[in-house]
Write a structure and sequence with these properties.
Largest sheet: 8 strands, antiparallel
Cofactor: Fe(2+)
Distance between the termini: 24 Å
Shape: globular
Structural class: alpha+beta
Keywords: Dioxygenase, Iron, Metal-binding, Oxidoreductase
GO molecular function, one term: 2-oxoglutarate-dependent dioxygenase activity
Protein name: JmjC domain-containing protein
Helix content: 25-40%
CATH class of the largest domain: Mainly Beta
Organism: Psychrosphaera saromensis
Order of helices and strands: HEHEEEHEEEEEEEEEHHHHEEEEHEHHE
CATH architecture of the largest domain: Sandwich
């Protein structure tokens, strides 16, 4: 599934619009058909393990109800929206929408949120701190978006619903099936439903300084590194010092921290763990059927079965000076250098074909790795 770039190229989009200003791409997905039905969206919202919310607005009386949503019977035919996060984890057809933006680094994609909205519905004018491509499915919605403004203040219209005051739009268009609007961070925007609609929001993530520092601190503690202590072997006596700590000592303290962060091995391992950690629940059974390595080898070599990666399972590869690591859902697997072709397949492809398995499972280390990944539920046997 690829975007039909008509008036601009991918590179022009990156140069002129990405994280800079909103744009509407008309008929971007030609002959677009909704990959999920309204009743399926409603069904997900009824599940306790799914992040969902119902937003209603009648006479400027806004209300937010968090899932699970027990019933939709009393809502009427207008003024309400249902928003369900992480639908790409549960519906292969929705997951495939991510391919439309595969020119953006994969680790930046967070999830695909699906919204079902009735006429006059929306969540009001608001800001997001992340990039988003919103694909229009059935129905029509009017989208207005303004210039990026990091100074705009949001107020809590009701609990868990932040909004901004009205803004001057630089984009004001009605979207129909297959149209896409891209909205960068801190661009105020508002979508109002004209005809009952489904939208697919491909949201991106960008770690904040707080998240990085907090996560790295946890990594340092868990890894039992960062044990070097402050030293002042060149201490000088200063009877006129006004501050508790002088500038030299201050710099030494900063170096203690920056030396740890600047250690590429430590920081890259931390990022590989953090960026592959699942942000939402995965579609993995509570009890995964366990297989021996011998069973899997016999199965694959005596059949045409493939294996598929579970939607939402993130992977990465780290190649250090003397080690090669494969990361899957924040777990590190130390690999041999001759496994690189296999772990690249695992990282780059959703499906590993039977032919590829027969080639790669001639190595004991690859057999052991795939056995672990299948038994943990991260990959499943097709059929």
């Amino acid at each position: 599934m690829n975007i039909n770039w008509q008036t601009i190229s991918k590179q022009e989009f990156i140069t002129e619009y990405w994280q800079k200003k909103p744009i509407v791409l008309k008929n971007a997905l030609v002959n677009f058909q909704d990959p999920i039905a309204p009743d399926e969206v409603a069904g997900l919202a009824m599940e306790s393990f799914i992040d969902s919310r119902l937003v209603t607005n009648k006479n400027d009386d806004w209300k937010v109800t968090h899932g699970p949503i027990e019933s939709f019977d009393q809502l009427g035919e207008s003024n309400w929206s249902l928003l369900v996060q992480g639908v790409d984890r549960w519906f292969e057809s929705v997951f495939d929408l991510r391919e439309a933006v595969n020119f953006i680094p994969k680790w930046r994609i967070d999830d695909v949120m699906v919204s079902y909205s009735t006429p006059n519905a929306g969540v009001g004018s608001h800001l997001d701190q992340y990039d988003v491509f919103i694909v229009q499915g059935q129905g029509k919605r009017r989208w207005r978006a303004g210039a990026v403004n990091t100074q705009l203040q949001q107020t809590e219209k009701t609990k868990d619903l932040l909004q901004v005051d009205e803004f001057d739009p630089i984009v004001d268009q009605v979207l129909e099936a297959g149209d896409i609007i891209y909205i960068p961070p801190f661009s105020p925007h508002n979508g109002e439903t004209i005809e009952t609609a489904i939208n697919y929001s491909i949201g991106f993530r960008a770690p904040s300084q707080q998240e990085l520092i907090s996560g790295f601190a946890d990594f340092v503690i868990d890894s039992e590194i960062g044990l070097t202590r402050f030293k002042d072997t060149d201490l000088s006596i200063d009877k006129n010092a006004d501050s508790l700590i002088n500038k030299t000592q201050l710099k030494q303290m900063q170096l203690l921290l920056t030396d740890l962060i600047n250690n590429d091995g430590h920081f890259e391992k931390f990022l590989n763990q953090g960026l592959t950690a699942p942000s939402r629940e995965l579609d993995i059974p509570e009890e995964v059927e366990q297989h021996t390595s011998d069973y899997l080898v016999n199965l694959f070599f005596n059949s045409n079965l493939n294996i598929n990666k579970v939607n939402g399972v993130e992977t990465s590869i780290y190649r250090g000076d003397n080690t090669t690591s494969f990361f899957c859902c924040a777990e590190e697997f130390i690999c041999e250098s001759h496994q690189i072709d296999f772990i690249r397949l695992l990282h780059q492809q959703k499906t590993i074909t039977n032919e590829q398995l027969k080639t790669e499972l001639k190595l004991l280390e690859n057999i052991q790795l795939i056995t672990t990944l299948v038994n943990q539920g991260y990959w499943y046997i097709e059929g």
